Each structure stands twice: as structure tokens, then as C-alpha cells.
């Protein structure tokens, strides 16, 4: 073993660069192992012992104590209920139910009456129905307001595009009119031809008169 240590020492003395590179690689490996062990080490917190979270990884979904629901589905249901509450069918059914309730508790035998005068249970049911109907109607109105706002925004953008298109067409028509003002039109050409024909007729008439005068002079 002493001979082996001497051989290793002599080898390191013969190759000092290789020994330093090996030592540097060993230190880097040990440093990396210590860092991984420190990241995986449990950390004591207020909620107990937990593993340290990696910053380079996304967080998982958190647990919620309250139940989750779809706001759009709940809003659609509330709109249906609010739409039914505002119809004549609901008023007819509610009137029929109240009349039946009051008639049963007035005309039925005392042993079968479940809500005698002053009909406290009926009042409680109507109050409960009103307490639920008001928020449902408000929720439906809020959704309608949101839709109206979106529709108004779309209409405003559409109007802006229409105005821009109209201005563009107006400029193009004005440019065409200016361009056509410098082009010979049919009426202008016709008037020019009439003028040329008139001048030719006048020239012919003048030449004819000159020739007649020449003949008269020759005859004399």
C-alpha cells in the first residue's frame, strides 16, 4: 500500500495539471450533491414539515374550501327563473296556489288544517320566495347590462368603421370628379364639333360669294 501511495504521488508530480483537473471536478460534483440534498431537505414551517418548493417548476392547483361552480351556467339558470317570474303564467300559478292554500286552511276540517289564520306559514313562504327572487332578478339584469355594454361597444366600432369607409369613398369620389374635370366629355366634344362645322360653313359661304363675284367681274 505504501508503494501504491508513492506511485500515486509520483504520478501526480508527473502530471500536476491532470491532478488539479480531477480535484476540481470532484469539488464541483460534491457541491452539486450538497445543493440537491439541501433542496430536498424538509423545511419546518407554520403548517408542519413540508418539502421546499422548486422555483423553476409551476405550482400545483391549490385546494379550496368553497365549492366551485360555473358562473355562466348559474347566470343562465338565474335568467330563466327571472324570465319565468316576469310572465303571466307565474302570476296565474301563484294566485292559484295562494287561493288553494287559503281555501284549504279555511274550509278544511280543523284536524287537516296545517296553516290556520293568520296564515303565518304562507307569509313565510312568500317572504322566502321574494328574498330569492330579488337577487335572481338583479343577477339577470347585471348579465343583460353586460351584454348591452358589449353590443354597444360593437356598434360603436361598427359605426367608426362605417364612418371611415364613408370618408374614404367621399375622398375617392372627389378625386374622380377632379380627374373628370380635366377630361373631355361628350357634350364638350359635341359643342366643339358644332363650332368647327359652323366655321366650315362660314368658310364655304365666303368662298362661294367670292367665286360669284369673280364670275360677275369676268362677265362684265
From TrEMBL:
Keywords attached to this entry: Membrane, Transmembrane, Transmembrane helix
Matching Pfam families: DUF1003 (PF06210)
Region (Disordered): 1-54, 200-220
Sequence intervals crossing the membrane: 90-107, 119-139
Ranges annotated as biased composition (Basic and acidic residues): 1-16, 24-41
Superkingdom of origin organism: Bacteria
The protein, known as: DUF1003 domain-containing protein
Amino acid at each position: 500500500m505504501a508503494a501504491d501511495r508513492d506511485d500515486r504521488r509520483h504520478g501526480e508530480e508527473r502530471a500536476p495539471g491532470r491532478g488539479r483537473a480531477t480535484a476540481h471536478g470532484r469539488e464541483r460534483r460534491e457541491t452539486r450533491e450538497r445543493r440537491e440534498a439541501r433542496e430536498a431537505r424538509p423545511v419546518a414551517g407554520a403548517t408542519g414539515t413540508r418539502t421546499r418548493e422548486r422555483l423553476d417548476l409551476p405550482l400545483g392547483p391549490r385546494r379550496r374550501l368553497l365549492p366551485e361552480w360555473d358562473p355562466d351556467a348559474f347566470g343562465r339558470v338565474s335568467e330563466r327563473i327571472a324570465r319565468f317570474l316576469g310572465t303571466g303564467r307565474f302570476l296565474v300559478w301563484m294566485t292559484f296556489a295562494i287561493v288553494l292554500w287559503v281555501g284549504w286552511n279555511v274550509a278544511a276540517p280543523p284536524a287537516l288544517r296545517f296553516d290556520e289564520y293568520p296564515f303565518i306559514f304562507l307569509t313565510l313562504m312568500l317572504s322566502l320566495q321574494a328574498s330569492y327572487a330579488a337577487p335572481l332578478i338583479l343577477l339577470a339584469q347585471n348579465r343583460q347590462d353586460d351584454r348591452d355594454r358589449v353590443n354597444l361597444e360593437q356598434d360603436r366600432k361598427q359605426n367608426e368603421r362605417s364612418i371611415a369607409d364613408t370618408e374614404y369613398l367621399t375622398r375617392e369620389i372627389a378625386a374622380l370628379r377632379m380627374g373628370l374635370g380635366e377630361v373631355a366629355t361628350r357634350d364638350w366634344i359635341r359643342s366643339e364639333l358644332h363650332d368647327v362645322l359652323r366655321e366650315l360653313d362660314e368658310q364655304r359661304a365666303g368662298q362661294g360669294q367670292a367665286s360669284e363675284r369673280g364670275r360677275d367681274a369676268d362677265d362684265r
